[in-house]
Amino acid sequence: MLEFKILKNSKNGIMLIGSSILCFILGFILLVSLDGYSPSEISIYQLQYSIYTVYTQFGFFIFTIIPMTLVSNDYKEKNIIFYKTLNYSSLQYVLNKIVSIGLYITIGNFLLSLIISTIYISFNNFFIFFMKIQNISIFIIIISVSLAYLLSNFIKSFCSCFALWIVGIVLSTISEKFFLFAFYDATLQRHLNLQNILESNVLFDLSILSEILYNGVVFCIVLFLAIIFKKRWMKNGI
Fold first, then answer.
1. Which of 45, 100, 210, 228 could hold 3 in an S-S bridge, CB 3.0 to 4.6 Å?
2. Cα dist from 16 to 30, 37, 57, 83, 103, whole Å
3. What one-character-per-residue DSSP string does 63-113 give?
4. Which pTM does this prediction carry?
5. For residue range 154-165, what is the model confidence (pLDDT) as tens digits?
6. Which of 16, 13, 17, 51 is nearest to 31 (CA)?
């Protein structure tokens, strides 16, 4: 509740929700300006696929800024002392950051999915689309919070996140064996299959489960790192 109130009072929560709306705008612009569609020609499947592409291709620029800023500011302003007085551990700190930020992102993703379905008066793909954008955005939040926690400086964290993204794409291009390092990249077949999945109006797709499992493993690794590097948390913030 503390982290949720901090996000609410600082207006960062509104900005996190707005990040999802920004992806909606960018997805629409891509279809109109780059693909040459008129607004009346765009189907719900095309719009959803375009927005998901924005999440996978630009998400590391859109969704990392606020989480990294929040953690970096805590270090910069020595707010870790405040958390220590509340008997927070490094694990609780990271966990609360991820959960609170993820909650606002979830609200934004839900509103985005609802808006699209309402515009087209079609809720057939609501669940699949929501879960697909939810999984990629939660993954980005986990990575961005963990990097900011480890590196403390916003510039270092942001550049490291960008570098990891590029390295992952390069590795997956070299060999399909390294696909886990670019799990959500648009070049993978799973991403390319999404438009067909949306057009088929199926209620569920197994790729959603694989993404949840992947995020779960990454989440556990990050929590483990939070424990291992608890002295760094104390040193950077106090």
1. 100
2. 22, 29, 18, 23, 10
3. SSHHHHHHHHHHHHTTTHHHHHHTT--HHHHHHHHHHHHHHHHHHHHHHHH
4. 0.92
5. 899 999 988 888
6. 51
